[in-house]
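idk why but the lab printer keeps eating my pages so im just putting this in chat instead. protein + pyridoxal-5'-phosphate:
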Amino acid sequence: MELLNTPTVSDQDRGGPDPRGSAAARLVARDRAVVWHPYAAAGAAAGGPLFAVASASGVRLRLTDGRELIDGMSSWWAAIHGYRHPVLDAAAHAQLDTMAHVMFGGLTHEPAVRLAETLVAITPAPLAKVFLCDSGSVSVEVAIKMALQYWLGRGRPRRTRLLTVRRGYHGDTSGAMAVCDPDGGMHHLFTGLLSRHLFAPAPPCGFDEPCTDAHVAPFAALLAAHADETAAVILEPVLQGTGAMRGYHPGFLTRVRELCDEHGVLLIADEIATGFGRTGELFGCDHAGISPDIMCVGKALTGGYLTMAATLCTDEVADGVCASEAGAFMHGPTFMANPLAAAIASANLELLLGSPWRETVRRIEAELAAGLAPAAELPGVAEVRTLGAVGVIETREPVDMAVIQPRLVELGVWVRPFGRLVYTMPPYVTGTADIATLTAAMVEAVATASR
Ligand SMILES: *Cc1c(COP(=O)(O)O)cnc(C)c1O
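predcted complex ->
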């Protein structure tokens, strides 16, 4: 899920000077021989430094060379309670003692049923049915397939296109890729393979900037022109994540819901990044008080322990899907509803809902805003912004990863910039002092890198 960055080779990658001991260097060398990393070239050609992690606990990652880093990424939005949380560890052990996995065709189990009940209870009504799957990208594939099968079931087979906004990110599989931002994404590499969907401009109104008719007009016009062939609108509610790291006003979402209703088009909310409190409400949709027809959740669902996601839909969508010729929803991953992941997910949600998460996210938001504010004065910085427990420094030029990544590690934090975005979404259990260290390091590293 990481965007491309310019390959560069550091001393550490070449197996060159590593004053902090050779165990880490040896592991990196073995890695370079055989392992792919996200959005990276393979092996020796891979760009940027690589750090070996020995263990993680609380909000600390411990490197094999003994250094400890404050985690500013929650392992890509996921580890909201930090690492090795005793409650989540206990849930994992207890489930392992019962069963790690069993197929889901024709069988069911307590962890799956319990998790589905919780998801229906905490997501906006009338979402009522839950499809548990392996990863965020798969949940987006499932959502798209549900929308297409729904229209087959309702006798409108011409409704096959999706409409979305630019600067979105929905995953790396081909269905999801086809609705990612067409310029920043991978469309040009896969023209001919990807379905051709409809792209309105990114929401122009910032999160705090009231949304006007003029802001929504291009989206409304595109939908009106293509309503007859549009199966669904898909977007990330109130915060565009990986493609932009930028919030937009909930009023935009409200208007999108109204327009979808007007044209009889389904609305898919991709809450994979925004879900479970990150933006200050439990779900991004809650800022606007709207309900989608289909919703994807993932990332923080298992607190960062295992890969699992879910696609929820209304009874109306479920009925439409089953009215299609197949009479069933045509999807079923091997590891569907994995009991181990489901048990940890339930423990994770119980922990979250039993915590003062709203106050916590508000505190982190204020601390991120205060800590990152000095970056706004730096010459290379275009904008500093926060939304919920997400803090972003946007630079004018793409950051040099070969410079900024080692600098951040030297300063004792794990932050993984991409392109022009140096951003953090720390675990909710991060204390005030650690947020201060994290933000000061980000400001310092950006100052170094844009000098
Ligand atoms: C990360 C992400 C995905 C893809 O999830 P994976 O688990 O990486 O497949 C989809 N949509 C959004 C909004 C995401 O942030």
